[in-house]
What does this fold into?
Amino acid sequence: MDWPSLVAGVLLGSTLAYLLLRIQLEKLSSRHAEALTEARRDSVSRSRAVLKGKMAEQIAPLLPGFDYWPSDARFLGDPVDYVIFNGYSRAKDGHEDEPLEIVIVDIKEGRARLNRGQRLIAQAVAAGRVRFEVVRVSEEGQITHYDWSGA
It folds into this structure.
């Protein structure tokens, strides 16, 4: 048994293994850094898109082409953006003979679609499952509900 050759072989093998592992680790570290940078870019891009959408929702009543008086629009934000009481401002100004219309509006940007909850709301409105209810609170804190029939 040649001890110096064995020690030299172990040292050479260890050094080669170390160098190969170090190269692989550097590659993995580089890939990780690239993936992290890309994830950050994607996150910033999505955040900007969300912010743009939120700003569009807020200023929509002031933009050309919005069919309603901004003073008739009430912002909710969720689950829909606006409830429009179309004609309400004119009715307050004494034009009570003009019919009032209630319109539920959701603002979308680009190709955005209604979410599931918004579709359910649209279906309820289309099916006529909408009513006006008055809730009275007594002095004792009791709640009583009344469907308002206009009488």
The chain is about 50% helix and 15% strand. The mean pLDDT is 90. Helices lie at 3-59, 88-92, 116-126.
